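Shall we go through a protein fold together, starting from nothing but its sequence? Label the sequence line and the structure token line clearly, so we can match residues to local backbone shapes. Would you write everything just below, so we can both look at the same thing?
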Amino acid sequence: MMSLGKKRVIVTGATGMVASEFIQKFKHQYDIMALTRSHDMHIDDVKVLQFSLTDFSGLRQKIIDFKPAVIINTAFYLSSRSSISEINEFVESVRFTNYLLDAISSLEDTHWIEMRSSSEFEFFKNNTPKEKASYLYSIYKSFSSNLLQWYSSQSSNFKVTELVLFTVYGKRSKGKKVIDFLIDAIGSREKVVFSSGIQRLDFVHISDVLAAIKHSIDFQNERIWVGTGTTKSIKELAMLIESNSSSLNVFWDPARDRPNDIYYAKAPIDLNDEWLAKVNLEEGVRLYLSENHGIGTD
């Protein structure tokens, strides 16, 4: 049953960190339909639809009947390995986006919020970023975004917001991130091996990502660069974690660096319209260690 008076929102990739955190935070503010390929998933007070790409027709009609005002698309297979063995996963992600776009193309006044990745861009210290894929994943993700732009060009009632996410942290997720591997190294008996650690990244807390999504729903911006506008190297992040916990048993191995690794990514926040991140990395690391690992709670 639809909740009267609430804006109807479809959230894809419901098991992922960004989607699941958004659903939990806003499920009483919006009438949410969560889409997932996971079986037997249940979220209190949220309609969950499990789907298969081999049988999308039934789901298509349910989406049309739901008449969403907003689609928040976080679903895409994520990998930095650039392995040909993952092509099928990337293609399925693009297919899902295409099917979903086709399903909502007949609806009026639809606002699509697309999660893009900073790995789809090349960043310069004093210039506007340009589109350039770092990984095979990034190429397919950009293709999916091009599909979205084509569909939106077919209708004046179809609005699009792109949220370019930088290095998100702040909650545990199925796929470990660099901050999680560093935390694993706290007091570890065995050395945890990293690459050189010189890569300078823009680390953005999950609470700021959720705020950016909410801002997009309210103001329908064309694009938000979801980062802090500052960078830290992975080595500097390790030192920050160490200063809030205890020694990290890590080994920095430059031989593990890859030519296509991202060595510099900073959100050009001066291009944003009003939205700015609020949680700096120092505060965010303390929160993450406290809330998810029980470190620094005394």
